[in-house]
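Allow me, if you will, to draw on your knowledge of protein folds for a short while. Thank you for your consideration; the sequence and its tokens are set out here:
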Amino acid sequence: MASRFFAELRASQVEAACGPSSIAVLPVGAIEQHGPHLPLATDALVAEAVSKEVVAAQGEDLWLLPTISYGRSVEHTWAAGTLSLSTATFAAVLDDIGRSVAAAGIRRIVLVNGHGGNVSEIQTALRDLRLAYGLLTFGINVFLAEEHDPAWAASEDGLGVHGGAAETSLMLHLRPDLVDLSAAERRIPARMAGNVHARFGGSVAFGWLANDFGAEGYLGDPTLATAEAGASGFKSMVATLGDQLAEVARFDFPDSARSR
């Protein structure tokens, strides 16, 4: 199969290779602390790996853009190593890429996000890019399925949202050389576990910093992680993203003239 990496095209090939039916797939991650057991690049590595797998398998008119490894990680800036973009910078980067994608003749762009702190900014960008450049814009949060996997929900009280069993399992599958399980311990905030509304995924939102839950800045039980669970979770994420991108390819608004 020919390469589906947009950056490997020559400038002279872009017009013939890309058109209104093309989909630009943009992995977006973060460089931030993930506790003492996982690497800073965890979110970027996961978003990129899932995107690469799906683009390679489905090919056709999907084009993988270079990963945006930096994200908005203000909840982790207290920790050494976190590299966070400001809201304005993050928005400007997404705007510049969207403008350039539209100029290449591509009509659809999908932001495949691996970091929870990027969600609100990406949601805003989807509308801004739609308005500014007429693109059909989509956001997919690949971490949702792994964090809310029933296999972990009971053992982590639904609080394994950062550096927990699911994320650690994925990294044991993808990059075991970057994982130090000897440094992992269970970190579940007991006071929040009994909440119905004011909790992650609940109906009451709250501002938080990762070290609000402990000096090491992670939530969950990474001691439960296994490479086998990571392989199974990764396979499921790839299948889900494949289905989502297939639907994106068919998506359009009723007033198709406005969409172009």
